[in-house]
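SAMPLE LOG
Freezer: B-3
Tube label: C17
Construct: single chain, 676 aa
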Amino acid sequence: MQPTSTLQSIIRPAGLRDVLVRRLAALRDWRPLVLVGIALVGLLLTTQAPFVYQFQAGKERGQLSDLPSLFNFNTPETGPDWNTWRWSRGQSAIVVPGVGQRSVVVSMDIVSHRAQWFEDAPPTVLYVQAGDLAPVPITLRQAGARYHIYVPAEGMRDGELWLELITEGWQNPVDSRENLGVALGNLVEVRGIAGSDGFVLPSGMLLLSWSGCLLLLYFMLRLIYFPRRLAFLTLLPLALLIPLLVLLNAPRLGFGNGWVWQFGALALLTAAICRIAVPPLLRRLEMVPPEAVLRWLLLLVVMSFAIKYGGRLYIASMPGDVQLHVNRYTLTVIGEIYIRAQHRGLPFPFPNGLYLLIAPLSLTGYGLHFLFELTAGIFEATAVLLMYLLVARLAASTRLGLLAAALYSLTAGGHMITWFAFETQVAGQWVTLLLFTVLVFAWPHRRDWLTWWVVVMLLIQVFLGHIGQFLNLSAAAVILLPWLWWQSRNDAEQRRGVLWLYGAGAGAAAFVSLFYYTAFWDLILEQIVGVSTRGLNDVTQRPPISREATLHTLWEGGLITHFGFFPVLLVIPGLLALWHPRWRRSIIPPLIVACFLVSIGQAVLPLITLNSITTRWLMFSSWGIFVAAAVGLLLLWRRGRSARLVSLAMAGYVCWITIVIWMDAMTLRLPPIEPF
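STRUCTURE (predicted):
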């Protein structure tokens, strides 16, 4: 497969004069200004809508969550009847952006304060300061009460409510915390006063940030080979959507004023790196697609990084398990290599190969939280490229490779493991996908020692990177190798390839067993004996899970939430098509089936054990789902106009699930179901 002449001219470095001419022409382009204008006009209009915003003090995540609106408050607390509250400190604040320059009434419950705890204490005085206005003293009632505070438009800071709550700090005798203020509880409401201020000016920062980001995204698209007209049409729905977000949740949009610049800058920087690095790499591998395919492939890579890493930069987004990895990384670098952990009550070895790879990066001086999140984003973005290479090489079709890459990046599973910060699983899946990509390029003809050592090293990294990937891949190999041996009974060359692959797997397994897993023989034997004699629930000290609950989780949480159901449905025709004679010598179809059999076995196992122990088996087979579903979707697409409408409807449903999961985790700290 050779690059097109058009793409060769794109990849070839241009002269300085040509570059300057193109940049000057870009400055005269009216399209980005139209996008900005549409967003600005829309924001001005939607800000005139009535404003009501509510949150529940003491609720950390989900609908009505109080973060990041409560600034400098203590941790949330819960009482009887699901009442929730947070104690303020001596000086705390209620922050609500996106209000606009309008008058509002803030209604809130003060459920406790100092005078309730000390009989001889004077009445508690709360000073309330709106923006730059003078503080107003409020003498609180002895009992908990609801207060309504009028804030004039002059009390807004650039359309943002900043209501400071100031009290004399004190300490409760039954509480170790110092500098307590008042306990803000239950529902807090900010309601605009209709018609009191005439035309409402939006926040200048909100206008500048969300409309200005369109400029960055437009130039990002132009950088990755999007023509002007296509770049404009691609961003036009976003320019129309941004003002509608004001109607949906203006404060959450306002909290993203700084974040959206980070997102746009990340996208632009990633696009520049992709522009420099990806086309030469594809040309070297002889996998360069036509320009119409390349631009969308690069967009998938750019958006995967900007969304999966950039989403974590939003203020008070879902934190995930990053701190857990920081703790275990610290144990690793101080010499505690053989870490024992627990998964839902079951002790197991926790391999830490990823931590050893990240350790040199810590010498740069960057924090570990940043390094873990950044590397996870890089893994997820480059996995899109690996998925393209694997399928394009398998099917000799760049369009099919693009389709598989789109399924990988647009389904929810990858976003779920990113939000949960399952960093070792992200890395393990990436290395596994790289291994399969190497195999599809090498099998069965290329069996040199360099490739063999590459396969061995990748297997070692999988085995020492994530225990679930180790177990799943080993089980798949037990199915795959005999199958390949039988399939190649009349093909001496392919049989030599099977022996070559078996040698690589046996060598990697022997290495990790000898130098790592032998340190856990006592733990492994104890679990084997315990599970075989007492049962999994007795070992884990967990109550049994009903089969109905397991089946519901498999259906709702697995097939629908992870993949949007339709890609799984398309696997059936896709897998049948992969048995076409032209793919018969490829290792990928039997490898997909082997992975599916492992996953099906683990899906059935909880129905027997009544336990939820998982090796992340569904995500292990996700690559095969994307490959087969891409083939199935292409077959459906070719069935005519009605079939194309059905395909687009299915794609829209899949994307909607992903968007909801991503938005909930980013803005509401609401975790999806834990990926399995």
